């Protein structure tokens, strides 16, 4: 995750949202089908989209992660759906954790719902 964040030249906010998304995935059984490297890359891509930093997965990110954007979209869509329901599920500990100042209030950002709507 750290290597991918560095390759993406991510700021602190993207980093916090990426870790928030990864932690949401830890308790989801259906995420076991994705390799950890893909989860890390998809979390960073989804965080960038969530914060409006970028909707593209650039060549540097592709090179360091070995994934193209199309390979990340399915995983990213699941992350967005988990983000949308983070506060209402039975396992809301991650939501409580990331709504504190220590974690930069990462939960305050709106989910990147546009990722659910279309393949672009």
Automatic annotation (TrEMBL):
Described function: Essential for the control of the cell cycle at the G2/M (mitosis) transition. G2/M cyclins accumulate steadily during G2 and are abruptly destroyed at mitosis.
**What's in the keyword line of the UniProt record?**
Cell cycle, Cell division, Cyclin
Chain ranges of the Cyclin C-terminal domain = 1-112
Q: What is this protein called?
A: Cyclin C-terminal domain-containing protein
Q: Which family does it belong to?
A: Belongs to the cyclin family. Cyclin AB subfamily.
Q: What Pfam families does this protein map onto?
A: Cyclin_C (PF02984)
Q: Which GO terms describe its biological process?
A: cell division; response to gamma radiation
The superkingdom of the source organism is: Eukaryota
Q: What subunit structure does UniProt give?
A: Interacts with the CDC2 and CDK2 protein kinases to form a serine/threonine kinase holoenzyme complex. The cyclin subunit imparts substrate specificity to the complex.
Domain annotation Cyclin-like: ranges: 1-81
InterPro entries per record: Cyclin-like_dom, Cyclin-like_sf, Cyclin_C-dom
């Amino acid at each position: 995750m750290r290597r991918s964040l560095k390759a993406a030249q991510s700021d602190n906010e993207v980093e916090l949202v990426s870790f928030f998304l990864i932690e949401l995935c830890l308790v989801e059984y259906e995420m076991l089908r994705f390799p950890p490297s893909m989860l890390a890359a998809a979390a960073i891509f989804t965080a960038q989209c969530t914060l409006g930093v970028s909707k593209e997965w650039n060549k540097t990110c592709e090179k360091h992660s070995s994934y193209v954007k199309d390979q990340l979209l399915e995983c990213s869509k699941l992350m967005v759906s988990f983000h949308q329901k983070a506060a209402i599920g039975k396992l809301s500990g991650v939501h409580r954790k990331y709504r504190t100042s220590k974690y930069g209030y990462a939960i305050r950002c709106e989910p990147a719902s546009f990722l659910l709507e279309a393949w672009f």
